[in-house]
Structure formats: C-alpha cells, structure tokens
Amino acid sequence: MKVLFQSRSNLYSAPGGDTTQIEKTKEYLEKLGVEVDISIELEPDLTGYDLVHLFNLMDPQELYMQIKHAKKYNKKVALSTIYGLYTEFERKARGGFAQKVANVLSPYTINYIKTFLRHLKDGRMNKGVYYMLFRGYYRLAKKVTENVDVFLPNSFSEMKRVAKEYKLKDYKHVVIPNAVDTRLFNPDKINIDELDEDVLQYKDCILSVARIEGRKATLNLVKAVGDKYPLVLIGNQTKNDPGFIKAVYDAAGPNVHFMGAIPHDKLPVFYKLARVHALISWMETPGLSSLEAGAMGTNIVITEKGDTRDYFEDYAFYCEPDDVASIRKAIDEAYNAPFDNKLKEKIYSEYIWEETAKKTLEGYKMI
User: Would strands 206-209 and 276-279 be described as parallel, antiparallel, or unpaired?
Assistant: First the structure.
C-alpha cells in the first residue's frame, strides 16, 4: 500500500502536535509495510498512491483544495480530524476588543477572520484561502467532511463533536489514539544520580511543556504556582499577543524558569525530574505533553476542555483554566499524591505509536 499524507502549508515552519502525529504515524506505518510520503502542496502528483490521508480539519482552506484534488483523481480519502475550536477561550479569556467581537460572532466567523489574518501575515495566501474568503470557513469545512471516506479522530468524543457540528450521518470512522514514543519516554532509562547539576536544579518542579499563550492559560498557571514551587516552562512564546507575554513575565518570580523550545529528545529528563506536569488548556485532543509526562511517571494536572477525560479518566488532577484557585488546588493535590502506576500502564498499552499505526491501517482497509 502506498499512501500520501497531506496537511497545512506551515506544517514544518510552525510545528505543532499534528507535526509529531504525522511523522510518528508515518514511521510506524512503514514498520507495517505501508509506503508513506508527506506533502504540504495543494495539488501534488497523485500517481501511484492508493489513497490520500489528510490531517487537521482546523485548516479547511487547504484541506479543501487537497481533497478536491484527490477526488478529481478518484482517490479514497482518510481524515485525521484533530479538531477542537477555541471558542470558549475566545469568548471568556481572550481579553480586549477581540473578546468583545468573539461574543457577537459565530465560532466559524471567528476562525474565518483568524485564518485569513494569519495567512496574510505569514505570506501564505493561496487558492484555498481565497475559496474560504468567498465560501466561508464553515461551508468549506463541511464540504471537506462530506468527501471523507473514513474519519480517524483521536477519540470518540472528538468524532461526536465533528459529526454534530457538521451534521454527518452514516460515516465510517476508527478512533486512532494519540501516542508517545515509549523508547524515548521511558523513566527506567534515566538515572537521576547521574544527571548534571544544571538540570538537577529543576528536581521536584512544576513543569509545563506547551506554547506560552492565552489558550494554554500560562498566565494563570504562573499566578497559581506563585512562589511556592519552582516552575519550568518549556515551549515557544506566541508572537501574536505581546501583551500577554509581558503579563506572564511580569507575574513570574525568580522561581519561574523560561527554557524556550528544546529538542524533543531532551524532554524525558525534565519529565523525570518534575513532580507535576501542568497543561492548563482551553482545548486539548488530548495533549501530547500530558501523555509523555504520564509515561514518565509524573502526575498530571489538566482541564476537562476537549477530550482529556477520554484518555486520562480519573488518573489526572483536573482544574478550570480561568480559575487560579482551582489550578492551585489541583497542583497542590498532584504534588503531594503518589503517582498511580495504572496511568503509566494504560499509556504503555493503549497510547503507543504501534497501536496508532495498527488502527490507522485498519481505517485504510475499511475504504
């Protein structure tokens, strides 16, 4: 079998969780004998491919062009939806004029505006964006969903959300677990006694591996931690909201360490040293860093926004992203609780790339 993966045009210039999902799914499908190529073009040469696998319904302007092209050449299409609007954040926590506007516009109009402005700013105006300008965000996304042969959501709750929003009936789907690389995220491979002093200083910290931005509620996390624990923030800072970044730095004391983005293979050491990993998001499906932390034996603090319950059930400590007291309480509880090895066992059995590849291949065979 030969498959072409297709996704957003800035997949590598602005990498995210979908980038990891695409690269790891490719790696492990190839172990099963499937030949996989990756393209961010709108209309690539599809000669020789058995099917096209699209990713990320949040960017329908490019998916529309890609799925239209696939259907032109009679190719079956699988879609990893990776879908969850940040409407609640936009209306409750964005702040300023943008929040006022968000409360009078539909979620799809909000994304219509944001998508256009982002492409304009990045110099990525393409035919798909122009289609979106004339047809609208929702209509374009719905057109994509109507042409998908099999949906590959990361959870059942995500599939229900997509089906409800886009009024889908009689659709095929296979739930594809998001996953961790257990070769890399293995706590037994790290001996704390052998670590250098420059990283040992972060032992028993609160860790957050996430972009520093409003949607991850970084400011409330900093406020919740206060000066009680060392807090290590690993990830890029948003470039779209300098006011938010300034507020985070202003609220941060000397116990807050801004590490920036670091190579993925350097993360296990930080997870191993941390007492708690906190991902205080307004939407996650379910959050790769939470899975990685759990695999490393670290207690996790998360919100119920999105599909986190599907993955972590009662093994996580839950809070509300806009409630500092709630975040503080969850962190205190997680900090003082022993790690439940059942979470690690669950991740190692269900949320591994080998399982992701097997389920993905199962979806392919359905079509």
Answer: parallel
Mark whether 207 and 304 lie in a shared domain. Answer: yes
Residue 292 CA to residue 235 CA, distance in Å, equals: 15
Residue 265's identity, in one-letter code, is D
Label residue 299 left, alpha or beta by phi (over 0 means left) and psi (-120 to 50 means alpha): beta
Dihedral angle sign, alpha carbons of residues 61, 86, 215, 266 = negative
CATH code of the domain in which 136 resides:
3.40.50.2000
The pLDDT tens digits of the residues spanning 97-111 come to 888 888 887 777 777
Quote the mean pLDDT of the chain.
Answer: 93
Strand partners, 150: 78
Regarding whether 359 and 281 lie in a shared domain, the answer is no
Same domain, 161 and 229: no
CA distance 269 to 205: 12
Measure the CA–CA gap between 180 and 21, rounded to whole angstroms.
9
The sign of the CA dihedral 198, 199, 200, 205 is positive
- Could you tell me the residue range of the domain that residue 6 belongs to? 2-179+352-366
